[in-house]
Amino acid sequence: MIRNWTARGRVRFAIGVVAAVLLIIFALNAGRMLLVDGPQPSDLILVLAGETDRRPAHALELLHQGYGKHVLIDVPAETRIYELSQLDLAQKYVRDLPDAASVSICPIRGLSTREETHDVEKCLTAEDGARILIVTSDFHTRRALSIFRHELRSKSFSVAATHDPTEFGSRWWTHRQWAKTCSGEWLRTIWWNAVERWE
Questions:
Q1: Which sequence spans correspond to the domains of the chain?
Q2: Are strands 80-81 and 84-85 parallel, antiparallel or unpaired?
Q3: What is the pTM of this model?
Q4: pLDDT in the model for residue 4
Q5: pLDDT per position as a tens digit, 174-185
Q6: DSSP 129-174
Q7: Secondary-structure class of domain 34-164 per CATH
């Protein structure tokens, strides 16, 4: 009896060690696993809503590098900044661009990435081509790419990452904000893969 328990104890200990090692490996790579940065030449460059100081600028860089023919910027239609709507600010931003003729705005009302795809789908009826390059924050790239490929299956997607060092880094455990961003994005990724994509 004692020998059996000792054998069982060893098996449990070994399983515990393996599980701990796997958990450590996952934790050390959790930030890198969120990141996908593989822009492909496309018909359209789509800028997802958020990080307005970085995403549109990166999209314009990609436009100049020949990754797309047109830029479509998602802008929350209901958001206001003091007395101005974000839509008004975005329209002014586009008007002042040297490349204004190659940039347009897609008003969105959805509050999640999945809902954003439905708003984008309506805007895409006025756009040519099926190859779309998504521009979004580095930590959001894997989930955004998965959601757009699932929700808009008639289109082909690639993704380009923007980086904000105050918001996220792959060594997430070295900075409080990075840890919050990483854990929050993993919760959304798990929810998308376990629940939302099957609804």
A1: 34-164
A2: antiparallel
A3: 0.89
A4: 57
A5: 999 999 999 999
A6: -SEEEEEEEGGGHHHHHHHHHHH-TTSEEEEEEE--TTT--SSGGG
A7: alpha beta
